[in-house]
Amino acid sequence: MKSSFCIDLQRFMLIPTKFPLSHNMLYTYVTSWNPAYALYWKDAETHADFYMYYPYTSTITSVDAMPFKVNADQSSEAAFKASDLIVGSTFDVVPTASPVNIMAKHIMSQVAIVLKAGAGFTESSLAASNPSVRINNLITSSTVNLSTSEVTMNGTASNVIPYKDGNVYRAIVVPQTVTGTKLITVTIDGYEYKLSQNITFVSGKRHTINVTVKKISNGVNVTIGEWEDDDVDYGGITS
Question: How far apart are CA 153 and CA 27, in angstroms?
Answer without folding.
Answer: 28
